[in-house]
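Regression check, S-adenosylmethionine case 217:
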Amino acid sequence: MLDLKTTQIEAARLAKTVLAAIDSMGDKAAEHVLRHSVLRWDPPALATAFWRCIAHARPEPGQAIVEIGTFHGATAALLGLIARDLCPGVKVWTVDVNGASSLALELWRILGVRHPLDQSGNVLARLGRAEAVLGDPSWPGGGLPVAVAFVDGDHGVDAVAREWALLAPRLTPRGVVLFDDVNYSRGPGAFLRGLDGFHDEGRLGWIANGKPTEEAA
Ligand SMILES: C[S@@+](CC[C@H](N)C(=O)[O-])C[C@H]1O[C@@H](n2cnc3c(N)ncnc32)[C@H](O)[C@@H]1O
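Current build output:
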């Protein structure tokens, strides 16, 4: 079990790997979008939050890490890299009403979390509205118990409430749901703060099943 300091070092290493992959695209516009629009928040801190959630949940094969809001694939890439280290064999199922962008596909190819030709890797994308896809048993990610979910789609209160209602019954005994942009102006903060066990950490907020352990404390 890693202590927080080591977790931060490991997470920062993976954040650096994602940033280096973005730089290697040699596309200034793409770099701007990915760095300033998607990863605008402190990437090592974001990676640390992901690492702690996955370390707490201890996902096993046959369970899912779910992301709502694929867009340019930066957070799915981070989740995929961390999962590869912490829970080999567990896949990241990411869904977006607009599908994964071409930047996402390129980033995943560079990082090896999703190969466009042989489909190898541990990040799987699905086009669709989260509310429909999460309950679709024909999508493997829609039928698996959820160990970790990162909710980064439609940040409105109603959408997040619906997504929470779908995710909560499927959470594993140590499952974690991490929400992005909790406190942006019309964000879901007011709804989430009304839920038992919700922790508000500023940009991010989370609810976890199971007792905290050293790595998640
Ligand atoms: C802030 S972006 C996600 C950024 C992404 N995590 C990344 O690393 O690039 C939000 C995304 O959520 C998607 N979205 C919005 N509402 C959705 C819904 N109901 N179901 C699925 N995706 C949704 C949007 O199409 C948009 O691409």
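Comparison notes: Strands lie at 64-68, 91-96, 123-127, 146-151, 171-179, 199-201, 204-208. The chain has a mean pLDDT of 90. No diff flagged against the previous build.
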